[in-house]
């Protein structure tokens, strides 16, 4: 959700503000409503915060020092205002703080701090962190000066007075003491002007360090680091990072003991993160699917075998995800059931009732684009404690979910910048299909089918006439408020994902249903002129049942839009989508993705950055 960036360079350089703004722009896809940067200067700390899109700074910091922090905010506590934007500055102006997460005991801590005399000037929970750090800093300084314990207990008071602490360690310990008092998933970074250091703690939301011989970066993901540094370090939960100049140290945030730093090479390609001549990332990523579907299954049969062995001996198989990833997980579970396996799909944010019945004799397959989805990670952490075997399919290498998994797979779609997922979704569904076919001994057949799918998509995108029909339909839908999407059997999840895609980008109420649900209540919503989409695909029986449902709404005056390989007499609009046997959910989702994009353009919406949404949902 929020994006964090920190920078520390060599003395004598003054490009910290530029690096921070540039880094924030590379994390725009995460979603945000305001942003800000803080840069150390000779006079103190330069601070600028804004609402709306990231732009140039109104002023350039004078006599800037080579370290600073920046932040993109996605509002959770407090409205979208400059005052609520991060970074937040301490009452004495000494340090600033940015945060990604939610302080669950915010109100309790706020009351305690107000009694101590702290005044709150924002509506954010982050301000609690700022005041707590200041309070702990004051206590530690007094303990050093008076060589006695403070009357007010601290998580560190039993050890803090036993030896003389450096001013750097005092600040680090103040940050650590603050962390120990917070409830919830909280990742935060503090920049201290006095010690010229940056201290960060991760709990929940991701942090990654990038290091070269000229500069050190700290960011919420690797995109700001591409082309900047050769090496990275992933920060784990409950770890503290201290950066001073080019010096880097890591500690346990719970014990304060130093932790060994494990570096690895940064391998993602910079070339993949641009629009390649397209107007938006969304349309580029839709087109890329003709290639990414094959990349997702470039695993050899042998690479699937360890997971397949685990799946075949499992009593039950559970797939889990949230949002679009939940629909991909549902589709994978369906593939497994069709192959004769006991498979169940779970929606991560509502999986609590399943946790007691999942055992180490089962297997869980977790699906996530970012690998940092808070709802999914929370369930996975509990299941890991129960020693349940875990596999994951994600699009971001070395994510938290990947590092927690026993069996790791990547959809290999390249960075997906548009907030609404397209290519990651189809890649993960294709991966699931090939996995299940390989379990059945059909690896080579599945690979041929995927390459045939790729050819179908290439031919589809080359035929501009199909998109002309979609563009014309988008114009007709501009004034529509309620639209329904019907799918049957293997296309139930296609209907849900198709409707979600249009909701996300157009802000229109599209609702997906199983075609079988129609007569159980949904048909009451249909009146003359209501647009109803029907996904006609799968077996002859499935096609006929969907056509029967569409005939019912047609008889009640609905305008029928058919997503099908062939036209039908009662389609008011026919959106062509080729049949593709077991991979039909892929060809049938493409028209929805394109309609979402073109309808967003008609409505003057930004398809890459829909309102109120974040790419990586790292808070609950």
Description:
The chain is an alpha/beta fold and 620 residues long. The protein folds into 3 domains: 3-134 and 182-267, Glutamine Phosphoribosylpyrophosphate, subunit 1, domain 1; 276-460, 3-Layer(aba) Sandwich (Rossmann fold), CATH 3.40.50.10490; 463-608, 3-Layer(aba) Sandwich (Rossmann fold). It is built from 15 helices and 25 strands. It has helices spanning 16-26, 106-115, 126-146, 167-179, 281-295, 301-313, 324-338, 374-385, 400-404, 423-439, 443-462, 464-477, 492-506, 540-555, 584-602, and strands at 3-9, 34-41, 45-51, 64-73, 88-89, 95-101, 186-192, 197-202, 207-211, 215-219, 231-235, 239-244, 247-252, 258-259, 264-265, 317-321, 343-347, 363-368, 390-394, 407-410, 482-487, 509-514, 531-535, 559-564, 573-576. It has an 8-stranded antiparallel β-sheet, covered by helices on one side. A 7-stranded antiparallel β-sheet has the order 5-6-7-8-12-13-14, with helices on one face. It has a 5-stranded parallel β-sheet with strand order 17-16-18-19-20, with helices on both faces. Strand 16, helix 7 (324-338) and strand 17 (343-347) form a beta-alpha-beta unit. Helix 6 (301-313) packs across helix 10 (423-439). It is globular and about 85 Å long. The chain starts with a strand and ends in an 18-residue tail after the last helix.
């Amino acid at each position: 959700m929020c994006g964090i960036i920190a920078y520390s360079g060599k003395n004598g350089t003054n490009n910290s503000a530029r690096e921070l703004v540039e880094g924030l722009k590379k994390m725009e896809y995460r979603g945000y409503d305001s942003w800000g940067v803080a840069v150390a200067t000779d006079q103190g700390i330069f601070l600028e915060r804004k609402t709306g899109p990231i732009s140039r700074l109104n002023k350039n910091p004078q006599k800037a020092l080579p370290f600073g922090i920046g932040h993109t905010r996605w509002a959770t506590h407090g409205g979208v205002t400059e005052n609520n934007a991060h970074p937040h500055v301490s009452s004495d102006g000494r340090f600033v703080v940015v945060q990604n997460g939610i302080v669950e005991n915010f109100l309790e801590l706020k009351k305690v701090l107000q009694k101590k005399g702290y005044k709150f000037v924002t509506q954010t929970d982050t301000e609690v962190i700022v005041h707590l750090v200041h309070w702990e800093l004051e206590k530690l300084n007094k303990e050093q000066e008076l060589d006695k314990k403070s009357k007010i207990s601290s998580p560190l008071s039993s050890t803090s007075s036993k030896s003389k602490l450096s001013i750097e360690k005092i600040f680090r310990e103040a940050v650590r003491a603050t962390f120990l008092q917070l409830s919830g998933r909280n990742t935060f970074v503090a920049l201290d002007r006095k010690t010229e250091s940056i201290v960060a703690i991760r709990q929940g939301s991701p942090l990654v360090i990038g290091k070269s011989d000229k500069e050190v970066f700290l960011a919420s993901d690797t995109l700001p680091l591409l082309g900047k540094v050769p090496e990275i370090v992933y920060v784990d939960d409950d770890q503290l990072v201290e950066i001073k100049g080019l010096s880097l140290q890591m500690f346990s945030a719970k014990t304060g003991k130093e932790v060994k730093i494990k570096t690895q090479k940064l391998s993602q390609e910079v070339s993949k993160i641009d629009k390649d001549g397209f107007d938006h990332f969304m349309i580029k990523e839709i087109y890329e699917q003709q290639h990414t579907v094959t990349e997702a299954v470039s695993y050899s049969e042998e690479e699937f075998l360890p997971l397949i062995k685990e799946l075949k001996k499992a009593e039950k198989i559970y797939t889990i995800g949230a949002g679009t990833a939940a629909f991909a997980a549902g589709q994978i579970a369906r593939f497994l059931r069709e192959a004769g396996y006991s498979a169940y799909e779970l929606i991560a944010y509502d999986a609590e009732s399943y946790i007691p019945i999942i055992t180490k004799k089962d297997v869980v397959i977790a699906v996530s684009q970012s690998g940092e989805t808070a709802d999914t990670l929370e369930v996975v952490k509990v299941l890991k404690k129960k020693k349940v075997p875990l596999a994951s399919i994600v699009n971001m290498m070395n994510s938290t979910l990947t590092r927690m998994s026993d069996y790791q797979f990547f959809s290999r779609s390249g960075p997906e910048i548009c907030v609404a997922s397209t290519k990651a979704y189809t890649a993960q569904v294709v991966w699931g299909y090939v996995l299940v076919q390989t379990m059945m001994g059909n690896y080579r057949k599945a690979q041929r089918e995927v390459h045939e799918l790729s050819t179908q998509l290439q031919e589809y995108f080359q035929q501009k006439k199909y998109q002309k029909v979609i563009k014309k339909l988008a114009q007709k839908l501009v004034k529509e408020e309620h639209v329904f999407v019907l799918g049957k059997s293997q296309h139930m999840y296609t209907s849900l994902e198709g409707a979600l895609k249009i909701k996300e980008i157009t802000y229109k109420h599209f609702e997906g249903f199983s075609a079988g649900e129609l007569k159980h209540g949904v048909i009451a919503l249909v009146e003359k002129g209501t647009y109803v989409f029907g996904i006609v695909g799968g077996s002859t029986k499935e096609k006929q049942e969907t056509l029967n449902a569409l005939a019912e709404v047609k008889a009640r005056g609905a305008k029928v839009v058919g997503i099908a390989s062939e036209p039908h007499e009662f389609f008011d609009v026919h959106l062509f989508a080729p049949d593709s046997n077991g991979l039909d959910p892929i060809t049938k989702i493409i028209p929805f993705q394109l309609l979402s994009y073109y309808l967003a353009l008609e409505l003057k919406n930004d398809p890459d950055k829909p309102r109120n949404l974040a790419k990586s949902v790292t808070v609950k």
